[in-house]
Each structure stands twice: as C-alpha cells, then as structure tokens.
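Chapter review. Work through the record for MFS transporter before attempting the end-of-chapter questions.
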Amino acid sequence: MPSTFATGPRSRWLALIVLCAGMLMVVLDGSIVTVALPAIQRDLNFSPSSLTWTVNAYMIAFGGLLLLAGRLGDLIGRKRMLLAGLAVFVVASLLCGLAGSAEMLIATRFLQGVGGAMFSAVSLGMIVTLFTEPSERARAIGAFAFTGAVGASIGQVLGGVLTDALGWHWVFLINLPIGVAAALLAVPLLENDRGLGLGKGADALGAALVTSGVMLGVYAIVQAEQYGWTSGRTLGLVALALALIAGFVVRQATAARPLLPLRVFRARNVWGSNLIQMLVLGALFSFQIHIALYMQGVLEYGATATGLAMLPAALAIGAVSLGFSARLISRFGERAILLCGLVLLLAARLLLIRLPVDGTYVVDLLPVMLLTAGGGLVLPALTALGMSGARPEDAGVTSGLFNTTQQIGAALGVAALSTLAASRAEHLAAEGAQAASALTGGYHLAFVVGAGLLAAGVALTALVLKKPAPGKPGKVTATSPATATPPATATTV
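Structure tokens for MFS transporter:
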C-alpha cells in the first residue's frame, strides 16, 4: 500500500497535529457530556435510567463498529475513512446540539459514535505508518496519548463552564470548529492511499451481529428497571442478545475474512486482559457518571463546580499514565503494576460506599479522586499484557479487540449500574426516604457493585495473567502511555 503521508519531517509532524486534533475532539466528547447530564435530563425529560443512553448510544456505536471501520479503512483508503469519520462526527455534533427531544439526542449520539469509530479505527495505524524510526514513533504515540489525557481532563471542566454559561447544547457544538479545522488541514497534509479495494471483502454480517447483540443487551439491562430483572421480556431480550453474539462467534469461525479471527483467544493474556478491561472500564465509567450526579443531585453543586471537582481525578490519571507508568512497568513488570493500580481503584470505590448525604469535598471526595490515579497504571499495563500474547500477524486485530472491549465494557457497566442505582433509589423513596437520601442510597449500591467488578479484576489478574516473555509485543506497547484514548486500532485485520 502506498505511503499514507508526505515523507518530509515537517509534513509528518504537521500530519500528527491533525490526527491529534481529531482525537482531541473524539476524547473531549466522551468526557464533556458527563457534567451536562443533569441539565440534559431536566430539559429533555429523560428518566434516570434512560439518561444513560446519552452515553451508551455513543459507546455502543463506537465499540461495535471499530473492527469494521478499521477493515474498511484498509479497503477504501485510510484518508478517505478518516475524512468521512470527521464529517459524520461534525454533522452528528451539530444535530446533537439542536436536539429537542430525548429520542433525537440518543439517535444523534449513536451517529456521533459511528463517526468516532471511523476516525479512531485508522488514526493510530496512520501514525505507526508515518513514524517508522523507534524513537520518533514513541514520541509520536506519546503525543497522541497525551492528547487523550488532555481531552479527558479539560472535558469535564469545559463541560461545566459551557453548561452554566451557554447551555448543554454547547457541549456538542464545541466540536464543530475543532472538526472542521482538522478536516481542512487533513486534506493537504495527508496523502491519498488507494487501499486494497472493496473486492478484498469486509465482514459486514459479523459487524451487524456483534453490534446488534451488544445494543440489545444494553437495552435489556436499561429496561430491566421498568419490567423487572426476572421478567419474561428482560430474559427474552437477554437471550436474543446472547444468541446474536453467539452468531457472531460462529460467523468468525466460518468466514473467509473474519473481523476477529478466533485464534487470537488462544493466548491466555489476550482473553484475560480483555475480560479484566471490561470489568475495569465498567466500574470506571459508571463512577464518572454517578459521582457527577451525586455532586449535582445531592450536594447541589453547579455544573462548573462539578467539573472542577472531578478535575483532580483526570489529572491524576493523565499524570501517572504519562509520567510514571512506563518506567514502573519496565522495572516491576506489567502484572505487578496492574495489581497495584487495581488495588488503588478498589480502595477508591470502597471509600465511596460510605459517602454521606451531607458529604464534604475535601473529606469525602478528594481522596477518592486522588486514588483514581490507579487508572493511570491499570490501562497501560493491561494494554501491554494483552498485546504480549498476540502473534505478529494478529497485532492489528488484537489491538482492535482492545478498543472494542473498552467501549462495550463501559457501555454495559454504565447501563447495569445506573439501572441498579435508579431501582434502589425508587425503592428507598417508596419507603419514605428523602430525595437526597434515596439518591445516595442508589449510588451506594452502584459503588458496591463497581467495587465487586474491580475485586473480580484483581482475582483474574492474580489467577489468569502471566508475565510476558522478553521481546513480546507487550514490552513495546508498555512504552506508550495509555489513557482514555483507544490504545490501538484494527487497521490490519
């Protein structure tokens, strides 16, 4: 395949700036909406459980389409896929900002996830193609990862400021100037690549099966609050979702060009790391949402104050992942650092279980924010361990799998824990509890379940994962800090 970029040093680094700008937009959108959720709920009359669809619709589309988008990028050309992804994301952001109903916002958030998947599925692969010298590649990937940390950090603060000053619509409209600027710069800076041609094939059926299965599973969980966890409707939807996912597995075993060759699961570190990642991301994303709702719904913080209150957690994760994780992993090994990070996250969730109705920030919340720095150890170590079991010819699809389980784990965790919290709060309110006490009780249950997910991650790390052998891909990955940015993409499926 022809070179993706102009080969001059200046052109390569300018192209990197374009890719980082686009990723900043995608990552920013993942965190900026969190603080605006209460305002969105009030304005569009979301129920507590259906509100999670403003997050889940984005993550489901993003995670479900990454593998297919990466393969299509190989077939039609990565520049075309990247520009199309930017266009879809910008248009969807405009429609989100103009949404006048809950249904329209959920639909346009799904469209945003489609655009985010199209962009993200090819961006990191383009960087690897552009920077072939090891030290330059490390610097480039480090800059790309730092963009993710910055986006996650400023998103919550910017979301609060925009919501208070201009309204929640602007947390989506802010994407327009960033996306348009990135697209205008990408046209002259990124060289055209012809791709392999659509005749090489893409497993559209496999992508449809896995995406519809995940969507239906999340929908069943969210609707369980209304119909009951053991109702025929809920159990039937869950059974259908599992059948679709089983169909995806069968399809991958029989397809000539599968999205996800099943041989990648022969390595214990691959399937173990992906399973642990789903548990961890489910706990982390639900924490982000529920702690923001607690501060605004119980402590009566404003949107700006909530964003500022959550900033130490994002900064701590970014600082640890960018400044310390690679050196610690190099010295003590991925498995030991992963265990250490998981224990820190578990300690933070255990502190949240005792969160009072009249909590204070310094005593009850700040220690939790600082302990969340464990995420800066967990994500790089997980990525390194997961890639350590991949054969060289499967490196692309294995990294694409990691992107996918990130999004699916986050979506399922948010849906399940939010539904449990809403059900518990309604039960307590029906028993006569005050609104603030009922909400806090619901969040307590979510934090308990989140702690259970992290405890399961600790157990799996100790029992399943093994230290990578010298020279495995995980050692290479560990030098590149991982953040909320997808750690790699499926560009070589």
